[in-house]
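Slide 14.
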Amino acid sequence: QVQLVESGGGLVQAGGSLRLSCAASGIIFSSNVMGWYRQAPGKQRELVASITSGGSTNYAGSVKGRFTISRDNAKNTVYLQMNNLKPEDTAVYYCNLDMKGSFRAYEYWGQGTQVTVSS
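Slide 15: predicted structure.
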């Protein structure tokens, strides 16, 4: 069974920074995609950023230039460095892991961590 454990959320003033971490444990395929999604109250969950095991990244337009996703494959851990935070970044942030096996795909989610940005 795969588990994703997130940490690093909290309350910060606008313009501040936070760093989220997500550690995956269990059977992790060497080829995978890890990412961060967020969901604000009354809104749908949206992709924030993702990174492949090879290091290719993808960002939502609203966070480009402010957020940086990175990973440590040896530790099966993904990070999200969030700089110049804005009140609209307030949401629950979820870690995601996607893996493709020979016959099926696997998707796992973390429990979520709250990020609150005050104006």
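Speaker note: The chain has no helices and eleven strands.
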